[in-house]
């Protein structure tokens, strides 16, 4: 056996285990089956946006090689597979033409049927950042009309797949879209609106609120967003650093969780922005969900700043780091502490938690003909699963755990420079080679079931 399992792997018994991917990152086949353009096509095509200048094509090419991916999942022994559906593969020209693309839906039909035949529960995510370009041209998530177009898209997908798919996720990581995509320009669509980006938070949460009942009307037993969280640490005991950490906690964490679970937004007066809330919105957003999708990678340390933002992110002292460097510290204890704090803060309003993403990138070769011994990733996963166990022992209900990612993929603005996969992918040929972490995770799943 490679690496060690958590000492009390039996404490994970009864949990669901999964691996995750996203359409733009793995599908390739940009022009195949009539897919339209998304904001990520525009972002990647603009020089200088992707750190290594790499395209997203062909990458893993899962559009053509999904059977290989299903075989990998079956060999891994996961219960479920979290993937995403490309909005522009389903409705290629949404915003100018509402015509549905049958060939795009056919692809997801084949994927779902293949997963079910392998005994794996499909868990599609409807939106993993790939907004159609015509909608962005009309304001994107700043425009309330995008919410209604998302509802139309949900209707189409649910009508086609709802007879077989029962577990759904709606909106993935709205914090990243709002803060990195619209506020800071680090991700698509590359806008730099700072706090003027915050209306995109409300519209994404409202899109979830509209989509979830559509999915349930089509047979869903689970319809929830997946939220990315980070425990915010002050750089010092100084009052201004403590205040800066509190402000970032509000807009990175509570701005999303409070409306979903409590039906109200936290106080945003410090940011000088009013959200575009209309009658009935909060009731839709706060309707109970079956699970809480929870993505976690690392804590964030901040100090006070007098710049355009009242906080500045700094390295976390004494923490080892992933391949992303000092801004991605490895502190599994912060995941445990965040989960415990959530349970205490929200009490009965918090549904069972599913860890919908957790993983790490480390430097690895572009090509290999042998298994990569990724011991750093094994340590990361083992220690974070240990944090899950400790949170469960403290009374937090956690029903599932998902590794990001099944495959090495196109890592957004970092291109092919970061590799998260349990499976190595040669981005030129698409060749898949399971890493040592693949065997480790397989063994953990087996041990948790024994």
UniProtKB/TrEMBL annotation:
UniProtKB keywords: Carbohydrate metabolism, Cellulose degradation, Glycosidase, Hydrolase, Polysaccharide degradation
Active site per database record: 173, 357
EC number annotated for this UniProt entry: 3.2.1.21
Annotated coiled-coil segments of the chain: none
Keyword Lyase: no
Catalysed reactions, as listed in the record: Hydrolysis of terminal, non-reducing beta-D-glucosyl residues with release of beta-D-glucose
GO biological process terms, semicolon-separated: cellulose catabolic process
Binding site for substrate: 25, 128, 172, 297, 404, 411-412
This protein's record includes keyword RNA-binding: no
Top-rank taxon: Bacteria
EC class: hydrolase
Entry's Gene Ontology cellular component terms: cytosol
GO molecular-function term, one example from the UniProt record: beta-glucosidase activity
InterPro entries in the record: GH, Glyco_hydro_1, Glyco_hydro_1_AS, Glyco_hydro_1_beta-glucosidase
Cross-referenced Pfam families: Glyco_hydro_1
Xref: NCBIfam families: BGL (TIGR03356)
Family: Belongs to the glycosyl hydrolase 1 family.
Name of the featured protein: Beta-glucosidase
